[in-house]
Amino acid sequence: MKGTPASHGYRMLAEWERHSRCWIGWPERPDNWRDNAVHAQRLFARVAAAISEFEPVTVCASASQWENARKMLPENVRVIELSMNDSWLRDTGPTFVVRDGSPGCERKIAGIDWNFNSYGGIEEGCYQDWSLDILNARKILEIEETPRFSHEMILEGGSIHVDGEDTCLTTEECLLNKNRNPHLNREQIEDELKAYLGVKKIIWLPRGLYGDDDTNGHIDNMCCFVKPSVVLLSWTNDETDPQYERSVEAFQVLSNATDAAGRKLQIIKLHVPDPLYATDEEAAGLTQGDDAVPRPSGRRLAASYVNFYIANQAVIVPQFGDQKWDNEAARVLGDAFPDHRVVTIEGAREIVLGGGNIHCITQQQPATVAE
Q1: How many other β-carbons are positioned within 10 Å of the β-carbon of residue 331?
Q2: Average pLDDT, the chain
């Protein structure tokens, strides 16, 4: 489609609005997923099965993995063949936008096909070849016969969160990083977000979660909206943890911010698990090579409960084996989403080892009928 989404009346919806489908990739690359991804595939299948109880799910798998994925997934999950460099469909799939029709009429759905450079390009990105990932959004939109807006700006879906009422959350650490769009300044990036997401105000947090070096601090590990004017913030009470400084810094920004409607923000603290580190066994299971960023033993994992998925009538929540904070996260999210069932996914550490979490591997497609 020509022009920008906003010029056609399109906007990005909040993630808690009703979905018609969830999209998930399928992991396989041995330099990112240990033991030829067998552990990660079990977790991805568990996530897909959990979400499929509340909304339709499509899993995208390569030709060599299609049969394996089909065997591991429930029959009600659609599996399609789609070649990818890696399985982060939040970042490489389309950002769906909608245009509301007249009362009683269906919404129009379109998708934004952003540019992608593997989180930083040849020198700083996560892998050297992203020639397949750069086609993911276009392929998905063609499968769904959905109009496509194309944009040359580098942007991953995990770097933005919206409230559905004209406000967008992001981080300076990611969007202002020179390895993304060095030719654009802050004001120009804001203009593009407004034109493509249909928002009117951007709230910038300085940094993302400590240790989230792969994405340069995506917002979806750090902070998200749970409803208009209410946010969840990754938090720690441990003043010796490097995350503490980042959490306090973000809290101060959010405390002084207002949304597009002029409302002060309510901040709900969601404590991160105690620090997690990659083990010798986990690192040894990787096929380390020149194409992907090294994942050595002892590195801190970017684990956050903020990285959950909102399905229709459910929230799908990662669990890391830290009983105290796992239980606390389920309680806090249950209070934040009183009309949703909290579904916990044990063993989500396996996804974090690859550089993301449940929100990172999923992408919601809005329903055509507003509810």
Answers
A1: 11
A2: 97
Tokens for 182?
A: 């060095």
- Whether pLDDT at 102 is above 80: no
Confidence at residue 201, expressed as pLDDT on a 0 to 100 scale: 98
Given a cut of 70, whether residue 370 has pLDDT beyond it is no
> In angstroms, rounded to a whole number, what is the distance separating the alpha carbons of residues 329 and 278?
22
Residue from 219, 309, 335 nearest 19 by CA: 309
Q: Among positive and negative, which fits the CA dihedral 167, 172, 176, 178?
A: negative
107 φ, ψ (degrees, to nearest 5): -70, 155
193 Cβ contact list (under 8 Å, min separation 6): 160, 168, 170, 199, 202
C-alpha radius of gyration, the chain, whole number: 19
Q: Which two tokens stand for residue 85?
A: 């460099």
The pLDDT of residue 123:
92
C-alpha 185/C-alpha 153 separation (Å) is 12
Q: Residue 282 has what DSSP assignment? A: H
Domains present along the chain, CATH in parentheses: 6-366 (3.75.10.10)
Contacts of 142 (CB under 8 A, 6+ apart): 148
Within 8 A by CB and 6+ apart from 269, the residues are: 232, 233, 235, 247, 251
DSSP β-ladder status, 19-25 and 362-366: antiparallel
In DSSP terms, 57 is beta-bridged to 22
Q: What is the pTM of this model?
A: 0.97
Extract the tokens encoding 301: 């994992």
Over residues 303-315, the mean pLDDT reads 98
58 conformational bin, left if phi > 0, alpha if psi -120 to 50, beta if neither = beta
pLDDT at 371 over 60: no
Which residues touch 363 (CB under 8 Å, ≥6 apart)? Answer: 22, 23, 24, 89, 90, 93, 94, 96, 157
Instruction: Output the six-digit token pair for 257.
Output: 């911010």
* Predicted local distance difference test score (pLDDT) of residue 106: 85
Nearest in space to 175 (alpha carbons), one of 119, 223, 126:
119
Q: Give the C-alpha separation, 262 to 166, whole Å.
A: 11
Q: Where are the beta strands (DSSP E) in 260-360?
A: 266-271, 309-311, 314-318, 341-345
Catalytic site positions: 360
197-240 pLDDT, tens per residue? Answer: 999 999 999 999 999 999 999 999 999 999 999 999 999 999 99
